[in-house]
Amino acid sequence: MQRRAVSAVLAAAALLLTAGCSSGDEDSPGKGGDRAPSGTTASPTRQAAETPPAKGTVKVVRTVAEGLNTPWGLAPLPDGDLFVSSRDDATITRVDGETGKKTELGEVPGVSPAGEGGLMGLALSPDYASDHMIYAYFTSASDNRIVRMVYDEQRAAGDQLGAPDTIFKGIPKGYIHNGGRIAFGPDKLLYAGTGESGDTGLSQDKESLGGKILRLTPEGEPAPGNPFPDSPVYSYGHRNVQGLAWDSKQRLFAAEFGQDTWDELNAIKPGDNYGWPEAEGKSDDSEFHSPLAQWGTDDASPSGIAYAEGSVWMAGLKGQRLWRIPLNGTEASADPQAFLEGEYGRLRTVVAAGGDKLWLVTSNTDGRGDPKDGDDRILELQVT
Predict the structure, then answer these.
(1) Residue (of 42, 37, 76, 15) closest to 354 by Cα position
(2) Digit-coded pLDDT (tens) for 292-351
């Protein structure tokens, strides 16, 4: 099996101090949260049938599971159960989708949790029914990397993960901005959102893996048809991508943390430059692809996103709310709506569960929240 190894770029401690992880990130007070969210209007050339209503609703149906420590990634299984990663414990747990019973699969070796790093995104192989393969993105002692492991349900609890096979490595790591979201797209290729590890110059460097969306084969090679020859880079100019989702037309959307002023939801076009660090939020410079929606940084700090019922749903950490962004093609058809504001604290991950259902994961035990009894938890939502 071929593996692609790319040189790691490590953020120096002095750079961390000067990078100023600010209001759009997970660990510092807000500076620019007094501005209203900005959405675009619908394009008149789009068919009305594609455009969801400007207003919608969401309700919490039930709490699926409680007592999770630093949950981060969530991967639904075909039978309705859920895999959830613990960022700091480096474990993967199976949650019964009906009863909430938790069974630890095991600990992923080689994880080095610190700051915003650790065991993060999870994804199931497109051929999971036959290969039982779990993919994971994590911070090691030297870099961020992607591994895959065979899940063996017949083994004893705590010993159900096979040895990790590293398929991709060399993604820059830092105390901050490690990205971490992975997902298989409709094309059955693996997408990964990375951060610039506090070194802003990496985002505009197409030779670096930091501040990018990557597109890989399941074996970790640059995917055929990528915009840059022999490169895993799919888009660049990102600050810290932690949300990836596709709409019903197989169009990719991504959420990323801003710094002082604007958090972003972007429609991703292969090879495009999304501006960081030269642009934060919407830009008049035609060189940069502007976001389809943006938020004052107190209101969002966006991590996971999902697509359901014609809208993108975006989980906010510092904003402690779930945003609905109704879409008209690759534009927002109305201003974003906020739900669950302050009700469940920091919101880390949201995943489509089919039809009008979502799974939502809280993030109050990660050292930056205010844990309540039962935290952290997985919630089942219904949207209309």
Answers:
(1) 76
(2) 999 998 999 999 999 999 999 999 999 999 999 999 999 999 999 999 999 999 999 999
Residue keyed to tokens 């058809």: 333
Q: What burial class does residue 126 get, using C-beta atoms within 10 Å of its C-beta: 0-12 exposed, 13-18 middle, 19+ buried?
A: middle
Start-to-end Cα distance in the chain: 45
Contacts 24+ apart (CB under 8 A), 159-166: 159/106, 160/105, 160/106, 161/92, 161/105, 161/106, 161/107, 161/108, 161/134, 163/109, 164/108, 164/109, 164/110, 164/136, 165/1, 166/3
What is the sign of the dihedral through the CA atoms of 375, 376, 378 and 382? positive
Q: What is the mean pLDDT of residues 268-287?
A: 98
Beta bridge partners of residue 86, listed in sequence order: 71
| Domain boundaries of the chain, sorted by first residue | 46-277+289-383
52/25 Cα distance (integer angstroms) = 30
Global pTM value: 0.90
Mean pLDDT, residues 154-162? 97
CA distance 118 to 125: 21
**Tell me, which fold does domain 46-277+289-383 have in CATH?**
Neuraminidase (2.120.10)
User: Which positions ≥6 away from 303 have C-beta within 8 Å?
Assistant: 181, 242, 243, 255, 315, 316, 317, 347, 348, 349, 363
* Three-class DSSP category at 42: coil
Residue-wise pLDDT tens digits, 91-144: 999 999 999 999 999 999 999 999 999 999 999 999 999 999 999 999 999 999
Q: Averaged over 35-58, what is the pLDDT?
A: 57
Distance, CA of 242 to CA of 240 (rounded, Å): 6
